[in-house]
C-alpha cells in the first residue's frame, strides 16, 4: 500500500540545482572520448585509447502510472502547493536532454518500482479494459509499458504495488516491457528460486578500450508478503534485501562488472511499518549499503521523498555507497554521474555524484503525448461518468480530527457488504467498521456524483475483509490509532495544523471506527487515550466478540496494528472497496448522509470536547 514514514529532517536534502544547465553537466572524460570517436569516424585509428570515461544512470521511482501532468480526481492539470508537475511525459524530456548532452551510449535509465498502480489510468487498464484481455478479446498494451519502452528504460525493480492486481496482470505487464523487471528477493514459493530476473548486465561502449560492464541488481519490498497476501500466498515468497544482495553482488563482481548499481524498492531509514510481523526490514537500502560490500550506488524508492544525494559508508570496506531517491510520480529525476579510469585493462570508479532534476520547467515529450493521448482521453471520459447524485456536499477536509459524513459513507459500504457474506453464527455478532482518511482534499459535491468523485475519496485498490476481535483487542487497536495525535494538555488550544503526527504516522495509517462510540483524549499519553468505549450504549466488555469490516492491507498487517493480522476471518472478498462504493451509489441513485451519517467518536481533552 502507501509508503512508510521516514525522518525527513535527516534525509530530505533539497537540491539547489534544477535549471536546464544541470542537464548538460556530468560529462567528465567526454572531450577525449569525442576526439577518439571523431578520429574513428574519419577512418583513422585513435592515437591512444582513452584512459578515463564517464557515464550516467538516470533513475525514476514510484511513478504509480502517472503518464501526463494530470489529476484524474480533480479532472484538471495537476497542482500542489509546491508547484510540482507529475508524469513520465515531462521526465522523458529531461532524459532526452541528458542523452543529447552526454551521448546516447553514455546514459542508462532505471526505475525503482511501483509502476502499474496509483491512478485511474492504472485502474482502467487493470480492471475496466484489462491488459490481460476480457470476454475473449486480447487486452491492450499498458500505457506505462508504452511510455517506458519509448523512453528506452534499461531495467526496473518490482514495487510492492506491482502485485495489487494479481500476478497475472503483473506477468502480462512484464511481457509488454522491452526491459526486465528485476526482483532478486521475489522468489517462487515452492522452489525458492527467483521468480523474476535478479539482475541485468549492461555495457557502456568505449572506443578503443574494453567496455564498461554495469551490473544492475533489483530488490523489492518484503512487505508484499503481508500487504498482498491474497495475491501471493502460496505462490511467491519474499526475503530480505540484505540477504539477497549478499548473494548477488559478489556474483555480479565475479561476472566482471566494473560498476554494481542497485535499484531498491525500499527506503533508507531502516524502519518498518509492519512491526514484528516479518523478520525483514521494510526500508533497508541504507542497511544494504552498509552491510553488503561491492556496491557503488543505489536508486532508492518506496518512501515518496526527495533525497538528491546521500552517502553510506560500507562497514567492511570503508567505501562510500551513493544513494538517491527521486521523490515519486515523476516529480524528480535522479542523475548518478560516474567517472572511471582504466587500470591494467580494468575500469575503476574514481568519482561519483548524484543529484535530482525537476521536470517542471520542461514540456511534455511530444512522442509520449502522441502515443498515449487517446488512452488518457478514454480514462478521462470514464472517470467523469455519473453514477448518481448527492443531496449535499461531503468534504474530507476535517476527516483527520472530526467524525464527518464522508467517512461514514465508507463505513456504511464496508459494513453492508460484510453483512451479506457472514455465516449465521457470525451474523449474530456486533458488526463494526474501521477505515482511514486517505485524502484530506476529497470532496463529493452536491448534485451529480461521478466515478472520479468516489475514486478521489478511496484512492487505493483495497479489497474487503471481516475479521473477529474481542473488546479488549478492539480497544488496543483504537489506542494504536490514537497515537496519530500529538499530546495536547488540557487547557491548551488545539491547532489542527500541528495536531497530527503525520510525519511518523501518516493519514492512511489512522483508522477511525464506526458501530461503536468512543472518545480520544488527546491530553493523555499514548496508550491511555480511548475513553468511554461503548456498543449500543453499553460499555464494551473485554471478552465481547466483534466482526470488524477492514481493508485487506490492514487485515494482513499493514501499518502494524495489533491483533488484526492474526484475527479469525469471518468474510473476505476480491471486490475493490472503491467499486463497492460506486455500486452503492449506482444502486441507490442518491447519496444521502441521512442514510448513514452517525457521529460516534470525538476528540476530548480531559473529557472536554475539542470541537
Automatic annotation (TrEMBL):
PROSITE patterns reported in the protein's UniProt record: 5_NUCLEOTIDASE_2, TAT
Listed CDD domains:
MPP_CpdB_N
**GO MF terms on file?**
2',3'-cyclic-nucleotide 2'-phosphodiesterase activity; 3'-nucleotidase activity; metal ion binding; nucleotide binding
5'-Nucleotidase C-terminal domain mapped to chain residues = 387-564
**Source organism of this protein record:** Streptomyces spiralis
Q: Which reaction does it catalyse?
A: a ribonucleoside 3'-phosphate + H2O = a ribonucleoside + phosphate; a nucleoside 2',3'-cyclic phosphate + H2O = a nucleoside 3'-phosphate + H(+)
Any Gene Ontology CC annotation = outer membrane-bounded periplasmic space
Q: Which InterPro entries match?
A: 5'-Nucleotdase_C, 5'-Nucleotdase_C_sf, 5'-Nucleotdase_CS, 5_nucleotidase/apyrase, Calcineurin-like_PHP, CpdB_N, Metallo-depent_PP-like, TAT_signal
Spell out the family assignment given in the record's similarity comment: Belongs to the 5'-nucleotidase family.
GO biological process terms on file: nucleotide catabolic process
Q: Which SUPFAM superfamilies match?
A: 5'-nucleotidase (syn. UDP-sugar hydrolase), C-terminal domain (SSF55816), Metallo-dependent phosphatases (SSF56300)
Compartments it resides in: Cell envelope
**What protein name is recorded for this chain?**
Multifunctional 2',3'-cyclic-nucleotide 2'-phosphodiesterase/5'-nucleotidase/3'-nucleotidase
Question: In which broad location class does this protein mainly occur, judging by the first location in its UniProt entry?
Answer: other
Keyword set, alphabetical order: Hydrolase, Metal-binding, Multifunctional enzyme, Nucleotide-binding, Signal
Q: Which Gene3D superfamilies match?
A: 3.60.21.10, 5'-Nucleotidase, C-terminal domain
* Domain of life, source organism: Bacteria
Q: What are the names of the required cofactors?
A: a divalent metal cation
Residue ranges of domain Calcineurin-like phosphoesterase in the record: 56-305
| Residues annotated as signal peptide | 1-35
Amino acid at each position: 500500500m502507501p509508503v512508510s514514514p521516514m525522518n525527513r529532517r535527516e534525509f530530505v536534502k533539497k537540491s539547489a540545482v534544477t535549471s536546464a544547465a544541470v542537464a548538460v553537466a556530468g560529462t567528465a572524460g567526454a572531450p577525449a572520448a569525442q576526439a577518439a570517436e571523431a578520429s574513428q569516424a574519419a577512418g583513422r585509428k585513435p592515437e591512444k585509447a582513452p584512459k578515463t570515461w564517464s557515464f550516467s544512470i538516470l533513475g525514476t521511482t514510484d511513478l504509480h502510472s502517472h503518464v501526463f501532468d494530470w489529476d484524474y480526481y480533480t479532472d484538471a492539470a495537476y497542482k500542489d502547493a509546491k508547484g510540482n508537475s507529475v508524469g513520465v511525459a515531462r521526465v522523458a524530456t529531461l532524459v532526452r536532454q541528458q542523452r543529447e548532452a552526454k551521448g546516447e551510449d553514455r546514459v542508462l535509465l532505471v526505475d525503482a518500482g511501483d509502476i502499474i498502480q496509483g491512478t485511474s489510468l492504472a485502474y482502467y487498464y487493470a480492471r475496466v479494459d484489462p491488459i490481460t484481455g476480457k470476454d475473449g478479446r486480447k487486452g491492450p498494451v499498458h500505457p506505462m509499458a508504452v511510455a517506458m519502452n519509448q523512453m528506452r528504460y534499461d531495467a526496473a525493480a518490482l514495487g510492492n504495488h506491482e502485485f495489487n492486481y494479481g500476478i497475472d496482470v503483473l506477468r502480462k505487464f512484464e511481457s509488454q516491457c522491452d526491459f526486465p523487471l528485476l526482483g532478486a528477493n521475489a522468489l517462487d514459493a515452492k522452489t525458492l528460486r527467483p521468480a523474476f530476473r535478479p539482475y541485468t548486465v549492461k555495457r557502456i561502449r568505449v572506443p578503443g578500450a574494453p567496455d564498461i560492464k554495469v551490473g544492475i541488481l533489483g530488490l523489492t519490498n518484503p512487505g508484499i508478503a503481508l500487504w498482498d497476501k491474497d495475491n501471493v500466498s502460496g505462490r511467491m515468497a519474499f526475503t530480505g534485501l540484505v540477504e539477497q544482495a549478499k548473494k548477488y553482488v559478489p556474483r555480479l563482481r565475479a561476472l566482471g562488472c566494473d560498476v554494481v548499481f542497485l535499484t531498491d524498492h525500499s527506503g533508507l531509514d531502516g524502519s518498518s511499518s509492519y512491526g514484528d510481523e516479518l523478520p525483514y526490514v521494510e526500508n533497508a537500502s541504507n542497511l544494504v549499503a552498509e552491510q553488503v560490500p561491492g556496491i557503488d550506488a543505489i536508486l532508492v524508492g518506496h518512501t515518496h521523498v526527495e533525497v538528491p544525494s546521500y552517502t553510506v559508508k560500507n562497514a567492511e570496506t570503508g567505501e562510500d555507497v551513493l544513494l538517491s531517491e527521486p521523490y515519486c510520480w515523476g516529480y524528480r529525476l535522479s542523475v548518478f554521474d560516474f567517472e572511471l579510469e582504466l587500470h591494467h585493462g580494468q575500469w575503476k570508479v574514481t568519482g561519483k555524484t548524484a543529484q535530482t532534476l525537476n521536470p517542471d520547467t520542461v514540456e511534455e515529450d511530444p512522442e509520449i503525448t502522441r502515443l498515449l493521448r487517446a488512452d488518457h482521453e478514454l480514462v478521462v471520459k470514464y472517470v467523469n461518468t455519473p453514477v448518481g447524485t448527492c443531496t449535499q456536499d461531503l468534504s474530507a477536509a476535517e476527516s483527520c480530527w472530526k467524525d464527518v459524513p464522508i467517512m461514514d459513507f465508507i463505513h456504511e459500504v464496508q459494513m453492508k457488504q460484510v453483512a451479506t457474506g457472514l455465516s449465521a453464527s457470525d451474523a449474530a455478532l456486533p458488526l463494526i467498521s474501521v477505515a482511514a482518511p486517505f485524502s484530506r482534499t476529497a470532496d463529493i459535491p452536491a448534485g451529480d456524483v461521478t466515478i472520479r468523485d468516489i475514486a478521489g475519496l478511496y484512492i487505493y485498490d483495497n479489497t474487503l475483509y471481516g475479521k473477529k476481535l474481542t473488546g479488549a483487542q478492539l480497544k488496543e487497536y483504537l489506542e494504536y490509532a490514537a497515537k496519530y495525535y500529538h499530546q495536547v494538555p488540557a487547557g491548551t488550544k488545539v491547532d489542527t495544523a500541528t495536531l497530527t503526527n503525520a510525519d511518523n504516522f501518516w493519514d492512511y495509517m489512522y483508522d477511525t471506527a464506526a458501530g461503536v462510540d468512543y472518545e480520544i483524549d488527546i491530553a493523555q499519553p499514548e496508550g491511555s487515550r480511548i475513553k468511554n468505549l461503548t456498543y449500543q450504549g453499553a460499555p464494551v466488555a473485554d471478552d465481547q466478540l466483534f466482526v470488524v469490516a477492514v481493508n485487506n492491507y490492514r487485515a494482513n498487517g499493514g501499518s502494524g496494528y495489533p491483533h488484526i493480522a492474526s484475527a479469525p476471518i469471518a468474510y473476505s472478498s476480491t471486490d475493490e472497496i472503491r467499486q463497492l462504493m460506486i455500486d452503492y451509489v449506482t444502486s441507490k441513485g442518491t447519496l444521502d448522509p441521512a442514510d448513514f451519517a452517525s457521529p460516534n467518536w470525538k476528540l476530548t481533552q480531559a473529557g472536554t470536547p475539542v470541537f
